[in-house]
Amino acid sequence: MSELFSDSVTTNIRAGAPIIQIIGHDTLRIHAVCLEAAQETNRTLYIWNRCRGIREFQGTSEQLIKENINQLPELLDWYLSESFEPDDFSDAPDAEQSNSILLIEDIHAELEQADPSLISQLRSYALQKSRLELTDQAIILSQPVSCLPVELQKDTQVLSMPLPDREEIKTLIEATKEHYGIDDRDFDESARLIDAALGLSTSEAQLAFAKVAVAKGRLTEAEVDLVVSEKEQVIRKSGLLEYFHPQFALEDVGGLQNLKSWLNRRSEAFSENARKCGLEYPKGVLMLGLPGTGKSLTAKAVSSSWQLPLLRLDMGKVFGGIVGQSEENIRNALQVAETISPCILWVDEIEKALSGMQSSGSTDGGTTSRVLGTFLTWMQEKTSPVFVLATANHIEMLPPELLRKGRVDEIFFVDLPTCEERKDILSIHLRRRDRGDALSDDNLNRLASISKGFTGAELEEAVKEAMFMAFSDDRPLQWTDIERAIQSTSPLSVTMQETILDTREWIKGRAVPASAVKPDPLPEAKDKSDVRPRLIQEGKNPFVKNNK
Ligand SMILES: Nc1ncnc2c1ncn2[C@@H]1O[C@H](COP(=O)(O)OP(=O)(O)OP(=O)(O)O)[C@@H](O)[C@H]1O
């Protein structure tokens, strides 16, 4: 059991916290935490839920105190009545609610409806606690989602139940072995098997191990992939995170030499050796740039080069409908990433989700700024080995707080590829399609020079299109196919000239170029007045709000 978490529950009880709220799905582990707190503080533990009534817990034994209490006011009356008489309840032979903890399970629906009588009862209890009139009682609310009426916010300590750690996962593996009668030859407590289940709740991990045990009749390192694929499903179900399988290496990214060298220098940053040498975990990087310039590809490639799992966080989905849900979502997603760590957390197009925020506050009742606040505080304070790779296309939409020093280790600007880089990218895409020898070096140089202003994605499209041309004519690929494909494409950079020029200017001193070479001048536009860098002359970038 996460000792830190148990300690914090116990400390809150000892300190007389009026109400403690534990957010988590793991009912059994929450019971265990409360039982531990009860033992530590010498108290009796009562657990109430709608189906099972009030039960008194002592170690592993439990005793029914009162079966048919369905209404919360009745439950609180019982718990808070000063002169509780055991005889009030015929089936409660020797109940004694003083010096006790009452764990109330799953009343989030009532809390969400903000039932006035429930709130006033809890508030009056909290008031008595603050006057030190009710030192013997402690109320803990446990629920899978965070929900707290505003009236109770100041009186409630909210704690998130951490996901099972390695020790707890190990216990689950051993229990599965016992349950399915797996003998020692077909069982090992491989660290990789344990790691594979990190990030799952107790019931999810239990089910994953049970499925493997039923299907294979063994639990060994050979089953790691099965557990990982169960985990992927669970992570996907949450809707916030997606688990990626490494497909590309950093060598599959054309150009971006500065960025790749920076990343290569940190490839062992999460190893034991790095700790021994006194290195800190790198926090992460922010990659800014045009769409299609290889930012997402780099995220995927880092994961495979560093051999770390890659989790993609969909910031758009973080924003849920219910009040408080968005903050809860981001906390949950970060918690999963921390549990799975060391890992890479790829936050794609971070600006889209955070753009609702205005400089003065917010447009959505403060939700965006609270989500941003949660994320930035986590970035600043995190000590776990989660490397954040955030990408953004629209610099103007980025909140200034994100760009401040200390949030990430470095901010890289990914510009359009230079001539040499375009050649590199074309070769990579030809190689990827088994056409690595199809073109001579001279022809590659020619294609690179006529594709000025093309992004990596546009170059890839040209290669794909050219291959279709050759295929439909039933002949091998020729460099002229790619030439035709390039000539019939109007690259994005032509329509975005002003933005690109302004951004290049703005980026100076704020971000490091991802490429090791100076960017090419942009291709000629038809009407030169369209591209006059008017805003640069004024010394500011209109796309960037409040960036100092
Ligand atoms: N530097 C590059 N080297 C090799 N391929 C590239 C490069 N840049 C882009 N590509 C190709 O273009 C595809 C799209 O690029 P990618 O998704 O990485 O761009 P992005 O900068 O993340 O853009 P977006 O923000 O639109 O996702 C990649 O899958 C890759 O095949």
Topology diagram in text:
Layout: H1 3-14, E1 19-23, H2 27-40, E2 44-49, E3 53-58, E4 61-66, H3 72-80, E5 100-105, H4 108-113, H5 116-130, E6 137-143, E7 156-160, H6 166-179, H7 191-197, H8 202-216, H9 224-237, E8 241-244, H10 257-265, H11 272-276, E9 284-289, H12 295-306, E10 310-313, H13 315-318, H14 325-340, E11 343-347, H15 350-354, E12 357-358, E13 361-362, H16 367-381, E14 386-392, H17 400-403, E15 410-414, H18 419-432, H19 441-450, H20 456-472, H21 479-487, H22 492-495, H23 497-507, E16 512-513, H24 534-537
Parallel strand pairs: 1-6, 1-7, 2-5, 5-6, 9-14, 9-15, 10-11, 11-14, 15-16
Antiparallel strand pairs: 2-3, 3-4, 8-10, 12-13
Helix pairs in contact: 1-2, 3-5, 6-8, 7-9, 8-9, 14-16, 18-19, 18-20, 19-21, 20-21
The chain binds adenosine-5'-triphosphate.
Features of the shown structure:
Rossmann fold; 16 strands; alpha/beta; 548 residues; binds adenosine-5'-triphosphate; 4 domains
Briefly say what this structure is.
Belongs to the AAA ATPase family. Highly divergent. The protein is of the alpha/beta class and 548 residues long.
